[in-house]
Specification:
Length: 275
């Protein structure tokens, strides 16, 4: 009989405490304990992605020509982070691209930031290109290429340049013997019309500065390809395209083949090819 009474008392005590336990479960601390411990905390304005996002939000409704004060602040943040991160490492191109993409991780459409990186051996070092395209509309885009030199597990910033505005970033490297300069192509496409426009630059890097050796600008419907020591560019002429399209005909496509020489790409041949 005593055991039955004790059992009844424990049941009554449990029922009495049940409302208190339920109330405690709704307290903020208790709810937080139920969250997945592996879930990453939200980004804050003190994190690099949060600080970049705070600045990028100000780009809404701003034309590219007026956006420099904002985009320069973003550039300074990203480059400072890259300098600190690379100081005691020799990262691969994949690692650099991931680090750049991380800086823009908090952006939401239509804002976007996309990394573009390379890491290529040259002489006694590795030349690292850390670039990105930052956009807030399909037309308003800015970009940046930061060149780092990496030796013996340490990297430092050498120079920074901005590629053609309103384009994205891609790289290509000619097959040529090692020389006193490191040479590479940067190319991209600008949207905003019925056909994207191709822009390309051939850079030479002497270990201290970048120099333009060749460039093509705003080639309507332009396409570019690379083969050993040649560059092939195909494009349309806008007035021909409009005229032929108005009469229901396909326009001619122009093709220029360049050979890469010590002075830069030089025209080897030009011809019309089918659309």
């Amino acid at each position: 009989m005593k055991r039955i009474r004790l059992l009844r008392l424990s049941i009554w005590a449990g029922l009495a405490l049940l409302p208190l336990a339920m109330a405690l479960s709704f307290l903020p601390g208790a709810a937080q304990d139920k969250q997945d411990k592996n879930e990453a905390p939200p980004l804050s304005a003190t994190d690099l992605p949060g600080r970049v996002n705070d600045l990028a939000q100000k780009l809404y409704g701003v034309m590219l020509e007026d956006a420099t004060p904002i985009t320069d602040q973003i550039q300074n943040l990203v480059i400072a982070e890259l300098q600190e991160w690379m100081m005691d490492r020799s990262p691969s191109d994949v690692e650099v691209r991931r680090e750049v993409d991380m800086a823009f991780a908090a952006l939401h459409y239509p804002l976007f930031g996309q990394g573009a990186a390379f890491a290529r051996p040259w002489k006694d070092q590795v030349v690292i290109g850390a670039g990105y395209t930052l956009g807030w509309t399909n037309i308003d885009r800015t970009n940046l290429i930061a060149i780092f030199s990496s030796r013996l597990g340490h990297s430092h910033l050498v120079t920074v340049t901005k590629f053609v505005p309103r384009t994205d970033l891609h790289y290509a490297f000619p097959q040529e013997p090692e020389s006193d300069t490191f040479r590479f192509f940067v190319y991209g496409f600008r949207l905003g019309e019925s056909q994207p426009r191709l822009n390309a630059v051939f850079y030479s890097f002497d270990g201290q500065a970048l120099k333009k050796l060749w460039e093509v600008d705003d080639l309507y419907g332009g396409k570019i390809s690379f083969a050993k020591d040649q560059v092939v560019i195909r494009y349309l002429k806008e007035d021909e395209y409009i005229s032929e399209a108005a009469h229901g005909r396909t326009p001619p496509r122009h093709q220029t083949i360049y050979t890469i020489t010590p002075a830069g790409p030089e025209v080897q041949s030009e011809q019309l090819i089918p659309y």
